[in-house]
Amino acid sequence: MFQTIHPNRWFFWAVVLPIMVALGLLWAITDFSISQEYEFTGDELFYSLRAKRKHPAPQQQVGTARTELECTDQGGDWGFFGDTIVRRCNVKTADAGKACSDSAECQGDCAASLSVRDKETLSSGQALFMEGQCSTQTLSLGCNYFVRQGQVKGLLCVD
Predict the structure, then answer these.
(1) What is the pLDDT of residues 7-19, one digit of tens each?
(2) CA angle 151, 35, 127 (to 5 degrees)
(3) 13 in a domain, yes or no?
(4) Contact predicate 107/136, CB 8 Å
(5) What pLDDT does 157 receive?
(6) Count helices and strands in the chain by DSSP H and E runs
(7) Looking at residue 147, what DSSP letter applies?
(8) Domain tally for the chain?
């Protein structure tokens, strides 16, 4: 009734198990983003490591209109925005305020609101890992701290 299919079962599992582990790691690397945070309080160091599932990029691309008619069809404002001589389309995003770790997850940009302590950390040259929020419009004018791959990359001012 019970027959041995693989007399050398140890060899079979020695080959299959590493392949299964490698495939699992490859899936985890491509499907999750890892963020780490440091905090110093007095004499103590708090360190946290968080794995978060990556969000797919939004299917609907907004704010890519090249004409006034396309822009108004998307519900946007057509005109001169910032310090430019070219008319552009500025559309309100559907995912405004959603947590993000990269602009690829948003219809607009992924920007972070930093505390004074965070700004000091960033200005000292240390890496600052945190989540941001999706912008309310496709054009992010003014000065913003943009988040790329879970890390605040610095202050960018767009006129």
Answers:
(1) 667 777 788 888 9
(2) 40
(3) no
(4) no
(5) 83
(6) 3, 9
(7) E
(8) 1
